[in-house]
Amino acid sequence: MIEIELTPTERRLIHHWIECMREESSHRGDGDAVFPDERIVEGKLDHAGPVRLTRRHLEEILDWSESSHQSIAFTAEEVMLIPKIKNALFSV
Known about the structure:
The protein has 92 residues and is mainly alpha-helical. 61% of the residues lie in helices and 7% in strands. It has helices at 8-25, 36-45, 55-67, 76-90, and strands at residues 2-4, 51-53. It has a two-stranded antiparallel ribbon with strand order 1-2. The longest helix has 18 residues, at 8-25.
């Protein structure tokens, strides 16, 4: 497991990325499906303190960040969060 400190704003951003990904998936279905990795990450984000995630979960978060933008510019908060996740992922 990889431990990462996330601010409340960073946690909200990740939740937003998950929601954007779900909205996008509704174009190919009813959008009601929630996959285990999404639910696990959401549950971990909802608890206070450092977040302990697997490599796969960090990779998923980066995928969600990319798929939520589709040619729209990243915000300043996202520009800071993405390298933070990559650093946690690749520092192990």
